[in-house]
Design brief:
Number of strands: 4
Number of helices: 2
Radius of gyration: 10 Å
Structural class: alpha+beta
Helix content: 25-40%
CATH class: Alpha Beta
Number of domains: 1
Order of helices and strands: EHEEHE
CATH architecture: 2-Layer Sandwich
Shape: globular
Length: 60
């Protein structure tokens, strides 16, 4: 499963990194995906991060 972050929507709140630091990290106050495709063991927490994004900037 691949994830992406819409840089125009991302507000850099860090919620995704807090929920799933294995996949997401903040770089220059914007979220970035560190692993694509996301390994199966991290997919559930990556989906939680997607659902937890307050501006829906994460998609898969």
């Amino acid at each position: 499963m691949n994830f992406k972050v819409n840089q125009d929507l991302c507000i850099g709140c860090g919620a995704c990194e807090e929920i799933c630091p294995e996949v997401f990290e903040l770089v220059d106050d914007k979220s970035q995906v560190k692993l694509n495709p996301v390994p199966e063991e991290f997919q559930e927490s990556a989906l939680d991060a997607e659902n937890g994004c307050p501006v829906q900037a994460i998609s898969h």
